[in-house]
C-alpha cells in the first residue's frame, strides 16, 4: 500500500501571504515557509554526473539526481544546493549493463532474468547507441528474482539517505515493438510482449514497494517514469502501486490541441492525477527555455493544478545549465477558485489572487479577462490578444507584479 499519498481533494488556501494546505502536508514536504509562499511547486531533473546543482534564482521543491560512487556523493551536493528540497535518486529498471557497479556479480547465474529473442540471444536495448562491453540488455521485469535485485539496489540508495527514488523506464507502452527492431532494440523478446508488459511492470512496482517497506523505508517516495495520456488505464494501474509519476515531454509549444497525446488530453490527465493526491512531475523538454515558451508551458501547468503534488520543470536537457529560472515561477496567485473552462475561445482559470489564460489553438484569439487584474509588468490588464500557443498570467496585487517584473 502507498503510505505517502496526499489526501484527495487537497486545495491550497491563502493565509497571511503563505500558501498552506487544508490537510497536513506529507513527510515529503520539506520546503520552508518562504518556499511555500507561491502557487506552484518546482522540479529539477539533473541526471548523470553533476558537480553543481544550483540554478541562478531557483528554489526547487523536488530534485531528481543520479546516485554515483559513493552512493551518497550526489545527494550531499544536491542538498547543499537545495537544502529544503526533497531529493530522489534515479534507478533504471528496464535494462542492465555489466558496467553498472555490482551488476556483473549480481546477475551471474541468472540468465532467466534477461530477455531473449527467438534464437536464444539476449535482446539488446538502445542497440543503435551501445555496443560491445557497453551493450545494454533488456531485463525481464516480471521475474521475481530480478524484481528483488532492483529492490536491493533501491534499498542501497535509500539507506544512503535519499528521500525516495525515481524508477525509470516504467513504460505504459512497451518499447519492445517490431518497428523498433534494428534501432532501439536488437530483436523482439519471446518472454514479454506488449500485452503482458503492463502486468509485469505493475508486479515489479508492487514487489519493490513491498521489499522497501520491509527494509524500514515505507516513508520514502517511489516515483515512476512515466505515465502518458495516450494510455490512461495503464497509467492508473501503475499509480496504484507508487507515490507518483513523471510525465516526460509533457508539453511543447507546437503540440496540437486534439488527440490522445494532444494538449487537452495531457492537461486533463494532469488534473486527474493531481486531484488523486499523488505526485505528478510535469517535465517539459524543448529546444528553447526562453520566456514566452516557458510562460505557455507553466500557465498550462497552472490550469491542471489541483493539489500539492504537481511539480513543473522546463529544460532543454537534464542538467542545471539546461534550464532557466523565470520570474513568474515565484508568483503567488493563491489557490484555484474554479475548474479550468473554455471561455471566449481560450482556456481560463481564476485563482484567489490572479487569473490564467491559455490559447493552445493555431489562431490568435482576443479575450477580455475579469476586471481589477494587472499584467506582470504592473500595468492594468485590458483586452488581451493571445497569439497561437501563448498564455497570460494576471495578478491582483501591484506589489506582486512589481516584484515579478524586477526579478527578471
Helix content: 10-25%
Query: What is the strand tally?
Result: 19
CATH architecture assignment name of the largest domain? Alpha-Beta Barrel
CATH topology of the largest domain: TIM Barrel
H and E string: EEHEEHEEHEEHEHEHEHEHEEEEEEEH
Number of helices: 9
* Integer-rounded radius of gyration: 22 Å
CATH class of the largest domain: Alpha Beta
Globally, the shape reads: globular
Order of strands across the biggest sheet?
3-4-5-9-10-11-12-13
Secondary-structure-derived class: alpha/beta
What is the number of independent domains? 2
Give the overall average pLDDT. Answer: 89
CATH homology superfamily of the largest domain:
Aldolase class I
Q: Give the amount of beta strand, in percent.
A: 15-25%
Main beta sheet: strand number and arrangement? 8 strands, parallel, barrel
Terminus-to-terminus distance: 44 Å
- Poorly predicted residue ranges: 5-35
Salient structural properties:
single chain, 408 residues, alpha/beta, TIM Barrel, Immunoglobulin-like, 2 domains, eight-stranded parallel beta barrel, four-stranded antiparallel beta sheet, 9 helices, 19 strands
Amino acid at each position: 500500500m502507498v503510505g505517502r499519498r496526499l489526501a484527495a481533494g487537497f486545495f491550497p488556501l491563502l493565509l497571511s501571504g503563505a500558501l498552506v494546505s487544508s490537510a497536513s502536508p506529507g513527510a515529503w514536504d520539506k520546503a520552508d515557509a518562504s518556499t511555500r509562499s507561491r502557487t506552484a511547486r518546482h522540479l529539477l531533473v539533473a541526471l548523470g554526473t553533476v558537480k553543481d546543482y544550483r540554478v541562478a534564482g531557483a528554489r526547487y521543491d523536488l530534485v531528481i539526481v543520479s546516485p554515483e560512487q559513493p552512493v551518497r556523493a550526489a545527494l550531499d551536493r544536491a542538498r547543499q544546493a537545495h537544502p529544503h528540497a526533497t531529493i530522489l535518486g534515479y534507478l533504471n529498471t528496464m535494462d542492465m549493463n555489466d558496467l553498472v557497479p555490482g551488476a556483473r556479480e549480481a546477475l551471474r547465474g541468472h540468465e532467466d532474468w534477461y530477455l531473449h529473442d527467438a534464437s536464444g540471444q539476449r535482446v539488446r536495448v538502445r542497440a543503435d547507441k551501445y555496443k560491445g562491453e557497453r551493450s545494454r540488455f533488456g531485463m525481464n521485469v516480471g521475474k521475481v528474482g530480478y524484481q528483488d535485485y532492483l529492490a536491493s539496489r533501491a534499498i542501497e540508495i535509500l539507506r544512503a539517505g535519499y528521500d525516495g527514488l525515481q524508477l525509470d523506464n516504467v513504460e505504459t507502452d512497451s518499447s519492445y515493438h517490431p518497428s523498433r527492431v534494428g534501432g532501439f532494440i536488437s530483436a523482439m523478446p519471446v518472454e514479454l510482449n506488449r500485452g503482458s508488459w503492463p502486468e509485469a511492470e505493475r508486479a515489479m512496482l508492487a514487489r519493490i514497494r513491498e521489499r522497501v517497506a520491509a527494509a524500514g523505508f515505507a516513508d520514502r517516495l517511489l516515483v515512476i517514469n512515466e505515465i502518458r495520456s495516450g494510455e490512461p488505464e495503464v497509467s492508473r494501474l501503475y499509480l496504484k502501486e507508487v507515490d507518483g509519476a513523471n510525465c516526460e515531454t509533457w508539453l511543447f509549444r507546437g503540440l496540437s490541441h486534439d488527440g490522445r497525446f494532444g494538449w487537452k488530453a495531457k492537461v486533463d490527465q494532469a488534473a486527474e492525477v493531481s486531484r488523486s493526491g499523488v505526485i505528478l512531475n510535469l517535465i517539459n523538454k524543448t529546444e528553447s527555455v526562453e520566456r514566452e515558451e516557458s510562460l505557455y508551458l507553466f500557465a498550462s501547468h497552472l490550469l491542471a493544478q489541483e493539489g500539492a503534488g504537481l511539480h513543473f520543470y522546463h529544460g532543454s536537457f537534464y542538467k542545471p545549465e539546461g534550464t532557466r529560472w523565470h520570474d513568474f515561477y515565484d508568483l503567488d496567485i493563491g489557490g484555484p477558485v474554479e475548474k479550468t473552462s473554455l471561455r471566449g475561445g481560450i482556456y481560463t482559470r481564476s485563482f484567489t489572487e490572479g487569473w490564467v489564460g491559455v490559447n493552445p489553438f493555431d489562431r490568435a484569439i482576443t479575450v477580455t479577462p475579469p476586471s481589477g487584474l494587472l499584467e506582470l509588468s504592473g500595468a492594468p490588464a485590458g483586452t488581451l490578444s493571445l497569439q497561437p500557443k501563448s498564455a497570460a498570467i494576471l495578478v491582483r496585487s501591484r506589489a506582486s507584479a512589481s516584484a515579478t517584473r524586477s526579478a527578471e
